[in-house]
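Running log. JK asked me to keep both predictions on one page so they can be read side by side. First protein, sequence followed by its tokens:
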Amino acid sequence: MLEITEEIKSMVAEITELEPELLRPDASLTREYQVDSLAALEIAVALEKRYGVSIAEEHLPRLDSIAGSVELVQELLARKAS
């Protein structure tokens, strides 16, 4: 799980142009780091490409934190594997 967390944190940092050290896993990307909707969509697309999953529109709010993104990706990978 640590590897996925670090990968996602790195992806979010690159897309948002924030320093990875500043990103807390439980922090709201939109409220605490002012990530806009376009950057949020970029994060979703990057996750889909990197992990080979499809993120449904109703799951997009879960991407508002790194921890939520990690949890969602793990769930989607588990479904994909079964």
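And the second, directly underneath as requested:
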Amino acid sequence: MENVPTRSCPGPPQLENGFVQDLGTVYLARSHAVYQCQVGYFMSGGDGTVRCGEDLQWEISSLRCLSEYTARAPHSEGHLRDTGCEFCVTCGMAESG
């Protein structure tokens, strides 16, 4: 007979600039939740799926929602210049709003 989990993880953790699709009320061990990023952001570090582990902790790894906007960084004279990076968070210049 297979061991059926009866204990559950707390709700999935918040993901900055993202949300859980079809948020459930109970997440048993070995169940999954799927994140989606808000408009203007894209998923990085996975496909958005996270798992409730046997230890009742979420296995979220390096999942993040990154900005789609082009980075701009201050030039040494205080002017803005294009850094050449496609995404601002790739350059470490996360923008808010």
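Observation for JK regarding the second prediction: The chain has a mean pLDDT of 75.
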